[in-house]
Amino acid sequence: MDKDKELIAKYAAQDEELRQLVEEHRALDQKLEEFHRRPYLTTEEEIEKKRIQFQKLALKDKIMAIVEKYRQEEGKE
Q: What's this model's pTM, rounded to 2 decimal places?
């Protein structure tokens, strides 16, 4: 996983799509942290939390697909 973080840091500066996905992922992570700090959640908040978790996972899948592409490119060099 550390290698993935290194690749993300390395290529996010030059890959606009990757940078944008990482920023969106971090923003969703911050929203989830807000939910975790609350002592309890309403039903609506619980649904929103699940929706955010799903979105965050989908973004991670996209990020990892891009990282895998860069990993393969580096392996060819």
A: 0.87
